[in-house]
Fold:
Amino acid sequence: MDSIVEQMHTFFEPKAVAVIGASRRTMKAGHVIFKNFVINKQRNLFKAKLYPVNPNEKTIQGFPCYPSILDINDEVDLAVIVVPAKIVPKVMQEIAKKGVKAVAIISSGFSEVGNHKLEEEVTAIAKKAGIRVLGPNCLGVYDSKTGVDMLFLPETKTLITGDEVVATPRPMAGPIAIVTQSGAFGAAALDYLSGKQMGVSKFVSFGNKADVTASEMLAYLLHDPKTQVILFYAESIDNGREFMEVARKVTPKKPIVALKVGRSEAGARAAASHTGSIAGSDKIYSSAFKQVGVLRANDLEEFFDMGKALAFQPPVAGKNVAIITDAGGPGIMAVDECVAQGLNVKKFSEETIAKFEKLKQEGKIPRFATNLNPVDLTGSVTSEMFEEGTRILFEDPEIDGIIVLGLHHLPALQEDFVDRVAELSKKYTKSVVACDVGETEMALHIRSRFDKLGIPAYFSPEDAARGMAALVNYGMYLKKCGQFDQYFESFMKRKNMS
Amino acid sequence: MDSIVEQMHTFFEPKAVAVIGASRRTMKAGHVIFKNFVINKQRNLFKAKLYPVNPNEKTIQGFPCYPSILDINDEVDLAVIVVPAKIVPKVMQEIAKKGVKAVAIISSGFSEVGNHKLEEEVTAIAKKAGIRVLGPNCLGVYDSKTGVDMLFLPETKTLITGDEVVATPRPMAGPIAIVTQSGAFGAAALDYLSGKQMGVSKFVSFGNKADVTASEMLAYLLHDPKTQVILFYAESIDNGREFMEVARKVTPKKPIVALKVGRSEAGARAAASHTGSIAGSDKIYSSAFKQVGVLRANDLEEFFDMGKALAFQPPVAGKNVAIITDAGGPGIMAVDECVAQGLNVKKFSEETIAKFEKLKQEGKIPRFATNLNPVDLTGSVTSEMFEEGTRILFEDPEIDGIIVLGLHHLPALQEDFVDRVAELSKKYTKSVVACDVGETEMALHIRSRFDKLGIPAYFSPEDAARGMAALVNYGMYLKKCGQFDQYFESFMKRKNMS
Structure:
């Protein structure tokens, strides 16, 4: 395993990178990729050496250009290949001679279009020389810390009007790693996470998986100190046994959320024609994931929602959820979805009910507020009421997790309820997720404020319930394998340090 | 029925409105509501007469103030009550004496807090005088055309920092009516629809439903020329027979999308404590909705997504869906969700496949593009390819609806593919929905451009599939009751006029 970690590490933190097929022509992938590295070097983010290789150019972006990798008078450990498929074998021969350890083949035109023979030729050269190959036909790697950025999708695009707009943003640094078979999905994920201000540690897209597998990347990420949560998109998993073995090692330490598409027969057929892989029965995937603690998302939105919950909050040790709200209707939606997810929304204990009654007598919450579960603070809600009510839920030992539905529309509620709830949550170890509904200024402000203070906020009550369910399901798995306390402790330590 | 329509009409298009409890004090609901009317009068949107009633003031916002409604020397057909619950009976007596036809009681403090007797007293006065009552304990009415706006939730809020932000926006005028039991949910819906640039015709929130029922409002909206799609939120439906009868009349003319919460036992219990109503078995609701063609949404997001599809596109006459994409992975997600929704994603006919093969031979789409279903134009996609590929799908008589997944990230795709697809769609009557994934500039631009051109765009492939499913399910119902052609024709006529 350790040698695999070392091998994979070269893709993310190389000492010297050669971009083979670097280009001066702005529309070329070889231009975008080389420029990514140059810019990250200027930012002092990318600290390794950088060499453009292209027999037709003298210099590119101010860097002296080499006709072949063999002309570089220095050791190179990582090569990025962006040349037409048919000359990749020749390039690989030179790379092998040069003693390069890791190669990302971005170029397409291999098994995905039926050119199996060409792909086999390339992998045979690599195998003989002990080179690890990512791809071909992939987006490669993006690392927010080391500045490795092989994405040939430019950060901005120029519209027909002449305006330049953000098209494929690179997210800020953060705890989420993305491991994806599909490049297009990967790009969309980066765009989504950037817009939602969610940070990414590492990104890797596999394409044809001619050599390096998802399982090897998962094994590597287990040891990556920057990665806390792994979002894993797959259309097929080739070596099930290897995957199960690796996942079993990773999940007690870091949650893996999987979006495995091709659930339906028609979807599996589409997956087969997309990457040429046979997907196998969907039920087998579900039960395999469950067995090794991989959390399966049902769709794209849930995939990100689960990742957000697990990145922001600790796992939950039981299924009893309390909901506090100022909006009766959305409160019911959250209950419905909690129940659909297998969580319990029980009536509170007599002690907790008595505490709410006391608050009413003291005039601290409205006397007609509901103190069942959900607690409904009604339209007369204030920030103080959210604080006082949530405190009681934190103190109740029977409650495992809390959902705060703070719809900002009610007249007397001020935005500081977010800060009050977040401040309170620091005194307890209980997990909290939040929700505000709306798509204009104040709703966006409330959700982003919650996020900033470490409480994941969602745009619908059902999404919040799904986020909570991810925390509970992961907690249940950790308990089952006796790792809850250890994970919980390391999570809290990390949280307190940040 | 006609008399009910006339009665309900007064709530939306009164000739003279008295706001009883209008106030100069900015924190009061009576201030916000009266100010809404004044502002809409200044905008020349609200054209009816307006009278503030408050015995403690001489003028409010420049309007002479009346001690009692009886002091107004003019006919008044609509009264909005915003005084403390305990004086509502006295106010109602005066209203009855004045001969007012319709009253919205915004005030709370009635059956929702156990004051059944007070509520009964008020409704008895109304009944005796032939007054129709909306509420009590409700948000009342918002009409984008007549400027009636009883919402006491201010459009903007001032943050602690002193910044003023949009808090409860009023959406622009448009085809969607919102009928909601919960006020808080209603406010959230307005916020959501505003942010998503979706237009609203009428909004009505019921509260305790002491008199006017949801069924009466649905009956009214059937005859409202501004309303094309009805979004209906309910925690309970009191008179099932009446509802079924009305819905059966409405749904062949206008789709009703229902979000009925309290599906789970715990949710139903919460609903009961929220509005005091007994929800009944959830399965009964599902089968009743199905029987009368009401489309049921599973959660908040689907509720709006379905409404958007039905507002933008005509119903679909069959279950065969074609998907065209530049992103294999998201294409598979769309297939999976289509199948889960009961739609067919079949292999194309030989003729259609031959057309795609011809495009390949002509070099108009990549030779390694997939022409099964989904059509995958691959990462080499251009705007022309989307146009040419989609044209073939429009021409195939076996295909009922089309999903366009245009992920903008791919390098050679320009934003004009949106205009090309929209232009093409005008030549055919087939329904189209679209999707682009991402939350930064270009994704937001692509989705909003699709929306503007009448093609509903979604942020995930699954949401797009759910939108298409709403069009298909509504189409199936219309066919079942022999109303498809008639609805389709009137939809297309409306679309061509706008």
In short: Chain B touches chain A through 96 residues (CB under 8 Å). The longest strand of chain B covers residues 173-180. The longest helix of chain B spans residues 461-480.
